[in-house]
Amino acid sequence: MPKGDGGTRWIDNNGKSARFHNGHIFTDDFGAERVFDAWLDPVNAGKWLFATPGGKMVRVDIDAKVGGKFNLTDRRDGEDVAHTGTYLEINRPKRLVFTFAVEKYSREITRVSIDITPHERGCDLKLTHENVLPEWAGRTEEGWAKILDGLARAIDGRW
Question: What is the CATH number of the domain that holds 16?
Fold first, then answer.
């Protein structure tokens, strides 16, 4: 079962942006390769990555290569919300880095790093989201916590 490690924190950067860290521990059947692959598999990612309980995932495009792009679009209350980005680094199963934008809400392009450390009984995942506008800090923190819970449910077959 996955567990949060309480490693969440925000760092204010002169009031212009924030950096978000979320530590998550995956145990038992949650090996590093399995956790890493879930981020790049369109069928799996469409179930949990940027998906909302009341929404419907209407587009899942993942070009899983450095320089490749992704677009996961969730229809919420009749409106499409596209989550887009470009993969900057793919080092299976240890590190995934991508740009991230949700143009419907902001023109800012941020950066997300996923670092996965394997250990004897699973792996640890550290998510870092950089350059988040301060007014989006709280919602971003909540969103990533829900996304990581969804990842655990998808890997565990509870989705």
Answer: 3.30.530.20
Using CA atoms, how far residue 18 sits from 30, 110, 124, 129, 131, in Å, is 29, 10, 23, 8, 5
Pairing of strands 69-76, 56-62: antiparallel
* Beta-ladder partners of 137: none
Query: pLDDT tens-digit profile of 33-83?
Result: 989 999 999 999 999 999 988 999 999 999 999 999 999 999 999 999 999
Domain total in the chain: 1
DSSP 59: E
* Average pLDDT of the residues of the chain: 83
Residues 9-40, buried b or exposed e (16+ Cβ, 10 A)? ebeeeeeebbbbbbbbbbeeebbbeebbbbbb
